[in-house]
Design goal:
This protein is of the alpha/beta class. Helix content is 28%, strand content 17%. A hairpin with a 4-residue loop joins β3 and β4.
Length: 128
């Protein structure tokens, strides 16, 4: 556990109204967020069901909205099954991964080495 210095404990104040109410109720005697407690999230067995499988044993996943959990899942699958060919087809690969991000779905796939196509802008080949 990493403890904070006593000077940083005095300066740190709660981030929201509820925490502030509790803190004030106890006369500000409690140290706010005094330590970082490391923990390991246990492994969870998951199952991936691709949308399609071609006669050439290519898995195809169609994505309209691509959430963080989906991105993480595809990185794990690629890491654990490097010989399986999984192709992502986005409805719009120019969509941003989050509202405030400049990174598009296509950019993110390129950065992480995932094969992808865009239904609107870069259609996959017929012979996929």
């Amino acid at each position: 556990m990493k403890k904070r210095s006593s000077s940083s404990l005095r300066k740190k104040k709660p981030k929201n109204k509820f925490e502030t109410e509790i803190w004030e109720y106890y006369n500000k005697e409690w140290a706010y967020e005094p330590e970082r407690i490391k923990y390991v999230q246990p492994a969870v067995n998951r199952v991936y069901v691709p949308d399609f499988k071609t006669p050439k044993d290519i898995y195809v996943e169609c994505k309209g909205y691509w959430k963080y959990d989906d991105r993480r899942k595809h990185l794990l699958i690629r890491q654990q099954y490097p010989t399986k060919r999984i192709v992502l087809i986005f409805y719009n690969s120019r969509s941003k991964i989050t509202k405030n991000s400049k990174t598009t779905y296509g950019d993110w796939c390129d950065e992480h080495g995932l094969e992808w196509y865009c239904w609107r802008h870069k259609k996959p080949p017929k012979e996929l």
